[in-house]
Specification:
Radius of gyration: 18 Å
Structural class: alpha/beta
CATH topology: Undecaprenyl pyrophosphate synthetase
Number of domains: 1
Strand order of the largest sheet: 5-6-4-3-7-8
Largest sheet: 6 strands, parallel
Number of helices: 8
Order of helices and strands: EEEHHEHHEHEHHEEH
Helix content: 25-40%
CATH superfamily: Decaprenyl diphosphate synthase-like
Shape: globular
Oligomer: single chain
Distance between the termini: 13 Å
Strand content: 15-25%
Amino acid sequence: MLLKSEKQNVVDDFLVPEHIGIIMDGNGRWAKKRLLPRKFGHREGAKTFKKIALAGKSMGVKFMTFYAFSTENWKRPDDEVEAIMRLFEDYLDDVSSFEKENIRLIFIGDRSALSDVLQNKMKHAEEISRNFDSMTVILAVNYGGRSEICMSVRAIAEKVKNNELDINDIDEKLIEENLYTADIIPPVDLIIRPSGEMRLSNFLIWQSAYAEYYFTDILWPDFKEDDLRDAVKDFSIRNRRFGGI
């Protein structure tokens, strides 16, 4: 059985993870099954994102990271990428529901490839929610776990090059301090991936070193609050030893 830490909540006799990561997968297949363009699946997926974030808050989850757009997603058709970017902008024009819920918004990933308009909206959403503390929602946009680690290593190497740091001082803590998630976001406890795929897909590689995984065949637009609860219940009965006995 899981042991309760000071940062975990208990709901209906099961422990709630402090940090859940979700790979929002299956939007395109959801649309294809209905003979619709893939962009309609992304639109439904965005609605699901809001519902699941609020469901996580009601359960007492403190951090939820959603994999919204990976560094590899640029390989998709141009019209699909454009539709996804418009969805991001539309969502950021309407963050009032999260403001009312006192939810902090953070974005991780390489913003340099995004439009100036989108970057400004992301920055604004972060600024207005900076002091909200009921829950933190992290959106990974143009994010890749490998590129994040490379970014950290480059920053450390630059300090070594400038004689600001001795090479023998490099440790896990230093690498963590140079990641997107530094100082604010704890390691992931549970990663949920709908759609039937059973892989991490370059998502939070460093942060999920000891995460539990939950896979389901449900496509993301069909993922409901009860499905989130089922995942958390499953997490609650895992025996997390973190390398111990």
